[in-house]
Design brief:
The complex is a heterodimer of chains A (480) and B (487).
Chain A (H helix, E strand, L loop, with lengths): L13 H12 L4 H7 L3 E3 L24 H10 L5 E6 L2 H6 L21 E2 L4 H6 L2 H14 L5 E6 L1 H6 L3 H12 L3 E4 L9 H15 L14 E7 L5 H11 L3 E7 L4 H5 L6 E4 L2 H15 L3 E3 L5 H12 L4 H29 L3 E4 L5 H4 L1 H6 L3 E7 L4 H7 L8 E4 L3 H11 L3 E4 L1 H9 L4 E3 L11 H17 L11
Parallel strand pairs in A: 2-3, 2-4, 4-5, 6-7, 6-8, 8-9, 10-11, 10-13, 11-12, 13-14
Antiparallel strand pairs in A: 1-12
Chain B lengths: L14 H10 L3 H8 L5 E2 L6 H10 L4 E6 L2 H15 L6 E2 L4 H6 L2 H15 L3 E6 L1 H6 L3 H11 L10 E2 L8 H17 L12 E4 L6 H14 L3 E4 L23 H6 L5 E4 L6 H10 L3 E4 L6 H15 L5 H21 L3 E5 L2 H13 L3 E7 L4 H12 L8 E4 L3 H10 L4 E4 L4 H7 L3 E3 L17 H23 L10
Parallel strand pairs in B: 2-3, 2-4, 4-5, 6-7, 6-8, 8-9, 10-11, 10-13, 11-12, 13-14
The chains are: A alpha/beta (480), B alpha/beta (487).
């Protein structure tokens, strides 16, 4: 994409953004400044303009999580018909218990297991090792939850440090219990962020799951898998019906409200549609190489991108699908236009800053644009270069891009740019609200959602409007 | 896969199986198997030590909690407080990674101390550990000494530090260890022979209800007793929205905390969450040392007021006497909605003791009492409370069990309501009974952390919440012909 196509924002130039970055750097010790500078830059419109996927600078107040968080919270946790054991001390499983909003169907404790299973390591487990305990608890889990299709064992920090061998325990248990028991060495100290946890989890799916089942129904040319949708606030329940409406068979979902055996049979689909590229591109590549399944990135935020994506998807299929896609677009366009007509006048010209993870710092940019808003800064907690390459063309010229931002940097940027809305996480939310700046949590949809697909956009629009135009903001400055 | 291996197809669980298991998990048979668990822990309501350490740290002026360990830990603790209080919770970590396992965490600690000190300008940093440094055996004492010598922070900069391994105890113990270290650090060399501040030092323990802290302060103001709340989170986690972000909006002033060693009286109202701290205070602080249970209900509040009156030589203020009367009035007016009702309760020891005495005062039954991280001592004290009332008969205590155990109890031996925290909502829904969110954390209701539970006012609040909910349930579920104007 040529730079000329980039949107411009009044008052934002390469120089102004650089000056803002320089200003934020002033307070840092020399060594820290040197480390942080390459992670912050004005958008150049092409390529990755910042360095990424590096170790966090200690003590700067990063928002990042860990590999375990990426494995438990993101990839494995949402699979509904498995028991996910947080293997180690009690905390990690407790903090990640129900705090991501990956919704699940089924009956809790019967055929759906959104619960906190832990080996609750004590001192003696650290000293003598936890393998024996693991062996016993796997049996107990199988006995108490007979409908669980499998068990994942997600290692917390101590497990890797004391030299436990969860792989052999899992192997034996798989044979004895006759269900897959998957060891996942996702200790929190591995890597630099959640991202390695995604990768490790993808690898465990590759090594233990994929190809172990096949779909019972006959194959069809329209069989696809939905990859990288975690059903936050019910996103999958908005996306799946739309994909079905255009004639596709959604055979498996990775992993929001996902089912283990369907994931295991995904090597039989004809196309992988991937939403969150960061967390699951690994398995898409594996399935492409090993089974020749093509994959396609798409974006279901906001009508413009949904329309574009649907047509891109249709390209992979015959005229029946193409016709259905056009029919769907024709059906939803006026509905979406009504949403825009309602909210755009209230949001036109407003600015947003984003700091999230996964796909949202780029994928939602155009959804805001659909509402007449401009994103004036964006960044990721745990992205890689290929994420930033994909981000540059979406963002307006010279707007600030930040990687693994510290709280100080975010605060400085927001204070300087004074956006009308900040979209980030729970750790940032109250800081900016205290500053009097409207905020939406963009990891969890702030306890709302879905935001994906046509059913999601009206909710997204309503929420953005509600955040910005809430009358409570008028009360912040007291009259005395 | 060999050619002979039969293809395994995707299977669906038959509806009949789902139905069978749905019923089975509610049965006596299941309960027996569930209680026979040796290794697997399911839905434990307690967190790990460092979370408590962070809460204690947030209770001091200008203090930045500092996690020595993996960065994900810090994000988890911070998010937990953000969600519960709906407030900022700034804290840093030194982001230990794989190389830390090989070389130890000293370099990370030093770099992080320098950065955090320079960027966030805290008056104190409270260092505590998560799993990694505990497992590899980092020597915090030496590391911190070296940090000062290297100039990462000034030589005299307050840097309390606590070992808070997550594979031992719970958040309550981490709170205790951090508080102890903070007090040891701040009071070092501050004891003055013959000096008495005339003040009360009050320890509230791991209490994530900012309303409780304000309530203590109000009661003491009525008395005219000057107080230093040790680890005062009331402003930290209930700060005004006025357009300015303040990273350290409250906390016990550091000089006041330092002078607390010369206090007239030091009192803990959370004996289980301040066991180590109080033990050290007894040996080191001037003045009188008193340990009282968390004042839930009338009798425990009475005991607190009488003790204060005795220690400070002040009569119990008329205003508080009237308040007591109003609490008793509120309880009597509504006793019929709680009398004989069975409750399942769970939580940290100090809160549990409070629930039990309060329920017994109302003629209700604390029927299933569960402490997921308890000791023989906890069990003994709970039993003594039960034995003190005829309504305690038949009530049972479960130590070191989890909420999946409690679910079995609710399904096989039902109760009328549950008292706990947000994590109990699934079992309460399965059992079709209300859940009263008096504990920590509360992720799914707004502003409850501002509603005090301690003292007479707290007692009124609990009675009002509980009784009105029971009445509401009746209104929502009764037949039309029993839907009445009055209740």
């Amino acid at each position: 994409m040529s730079k000329a196509k980039l949107k411009k924002v009044k008052g934002i130039t390469k120089e102004s953004t650089q000056a803002m970055i320089d200003h934020a750097m002033e307070i840092y010790p020399e060594k820290t400044k040197k480390k942080r500078v390459p992670h912050l830059a004005p958008n150049e419109g092409e390529g990755a303009c910042v360095k990424s996927n590096r170790k966090t600078v200690p003590g700067i107040m990063s928002a990042r999580g860990c590999a375990y968080a990426g494995a438990k919270g993101v990839v494995w946790g949402p699979i509904r018909d498995m028991v996910h054991v947080s293997h180690g001390p009690v905390g990690c499983g407790w903090y990640s218990w129900g705090t991501r909003r990956n919704l699940m169907s089924g009956i809790n404790g019967v055929n759906q297991f959104a619960m906190q299973f832990t080996s609750d390591f004590q001192e003696k487990d650290i000293v003598y090792g936890g393998d024996k305990k693991l062996k016993v608890l796997l049996k107990e889990a199988h006995e108490l939850f007979p409908l669980a299709k499998g068990i994942s064992v997600l290692s917390e920090c101590p497990v890797g440090l004391i030299g436990d061998d969860i792989n052999s325990v899992a192997k034996i248990a798989t044979e004895e219990l006759e269900i897959p028991v998957i060891p996942c060495n996702c200790e929190g100290f591995r890597g630099v962020s959640q991202s390695l946890g995604h990768h490790i989890s993808n690898d465990t799916i590759r090594d233990h799951i994929i190809g172990t089942r096949e779909f019972a129904e006959p194959e069809s040319p329209y069989d696809i898998a939905l990859i990288g949708d975690y059903n936050i606030g019910g996103d999958v329940w908005s996306v799946k019906p739309l994909l079905e409406e255009i004639g596709l068979n959604v055979k498996a979902i990775w992993t929001g409200d996902g089912e283990l055996e369907k994931i295991a049979a995904t090597h039989k689909v004809k196309l992988n549609l991937i939403h969150c590229y960061r967390s699951m591109n690994y398995m898409c590549r594996v399935m492409e190489e090993k089974y020749g399944i093509p994959w396609l990135e798409f974006n279901f935020f906001g009508p413009t991108k949904i329309r574009e994506s649907l047509r891109k998807i249709a390209e992979h299929f015959d005229d029946t699908i193409k016709a259905k896609v056009e029919a769907a677009i024709a059906k939803y366009d006026p509905i979406m236009q009504a949403v825009i007509d309602e909210y755009r006048p209230r949001l036109e010209g407003k600015t947003v800053m984003l700091y999230v993870g996964g796909l949202r710092p780029r994928h939602t940019v155009n959804a805001y644009a659909d509402l007449g808003m401009t994103v004036v800064g964006s960044g990721y907690e745990f992205a890689h270069g290929d994420d930033y390459e994909r981000t540059s063309p979406e963002m307006p010229e010279a707007t600030v891009i930040y990687d693994d931002a510290s709280e100080h940097e975010l605060e400085q940027f927001v204070d300087e740019l004074r956006p009308d809305l900040v979209g980030s996480g729970i750790k940032e939310k109250y800081l900016f609200q205290k500053m009097g700046i409207p905020f939406r949590q963009m990891h969890s949809w702030d306890y709302s959602g879905p935001y994906h697909a046509y059913n999601g956009f009206p909710i997204f629009a309503r929420d953005v409007d509600m955040a910005i135009n809430s009358p409570t903001w008028k009360l912040v400055k007291s009259p005395f | 896969m060999s050619a002979e291996t039969a293809v395994k197809y995707v299977t669906e669980i038959p509806e009949s199986e789902v139905k069978r298991v749905s019923e089975w998990i509610n049965s006596e048979d299941y309960k027996e198997k569930n209680f026979a668990r040796q290794a697997l822990v399911i839905n434990p309501p307690h967190a790990c030590q460092p979370l408590g350490a962070e809460l204690a740290a947030h209770g001091f002026e200008g203090t930045l909690p500092f996690v020595h360990g993996s960065q994900g830990c810090a994000s988890y603790y911070r998010s937990t407080f953000n969600r519960h209080f709906r407030e900022p919770a700034p804290a840093v970590s030194d982001s230990m990674t794989e190389d830390g396992a090989v070389f130890g965490g000293q370099n990370n600690l030093h770099e992080a101390l320098e950065n955090a000190y320079t960027i966030y300008k805290p008056k104190m940093m409270a260092v505590f550990t998560s799993c990694m440094p505990e497992v590899i055996g980092d020597d915090l004492t030496a590391f911190i000494k070296n940090a000062r010598n290297k100039g990462c922070v000034p030589q005299d900069y307050p840097l309390p530090y606590a070992n808070t391994p997550s594979f031992n105890g719970s958040h309550v113990h981490g709170y205790d260890s951090m508080l102890l270290s903070i007090l040891q650090t701040l009071t070092a060399g501050k004891q003055v022979e013959g000096r008495c501040t005339g003040k009360l030092n009050l320890i509230a323990g791991f209490d994530a209800n900012t309303g409780n802290y304000r309530e203590y302060k109000r009661i003491l103001k009525e008395f005219g007793i000057p107080v230093t709340l040790l680890a005062d989170i009331s402003e930290t986690f209930d700060s005004p929205l006025d357009g300015t972000y303040r990273p350290y909006p409250g906390g016990t002033p550091l000089d006041e905390a330092a002078d607390s060693i010369n206090g007239k009286v030091t009192m803990t109202l959370a004996p289980y969450a301040s066991n180590k701290t109080f033990g050290w205070i007894k040996d080191n602080y001037s003045g009188t040392h008193v340990s009282l249970p968390t004042p839930f209900g009338v009798a425990k509040t009475d005991a607190l007021l009488m003790k204060l009156s005795e220690l400070f030589g002040k009569p119990i203020p008329e205003s508080l006497k009237a308040e007591r009367g109003r609490a008793v009035d509120a309880m009597t007016d509504s006793h019929q909605y709680m009398h004989g009702k069975k409750f399942a309760i769970y939580g940290d020891p100090d809160y549990l003791m409070g629930y039990v005495s309060f329920l017994l005062e109302m003629g209700a039954k604390p029927y299933h009492i569960l402490c997921s991280k308890g000791t023989k001592k906890v069990e003994k004290e709970l039993q003594a409370l039960l034995d003190s009332s005829p309504d305690g008969k038949g009530c049972k205590i479960y130590i070191n069990k989890d909420l999946w155990h409690m679910r079995s109890l609710l399904m096989t031996d039902p109760v009328d309501a549950v008292i706990g925290d947000t994590h109990g909502k699934f079992m309460a829904r399965d059992a079709n009974v209300p859940l009263f969110r008096f504990g920590f954390p509360i992720f799914d209701r707004v502003n409850l952390h501002r509603t005090p539970l301690v003292g007479y006012q707290g007692t009124i609040n609990m009675v009002t919440t509980i009784c009105n909910k029971f009445i509401e349930v009746r209104d929502e579920t009764c037949e039309d012909r029993h839907f009445e104007m009055m209740r």
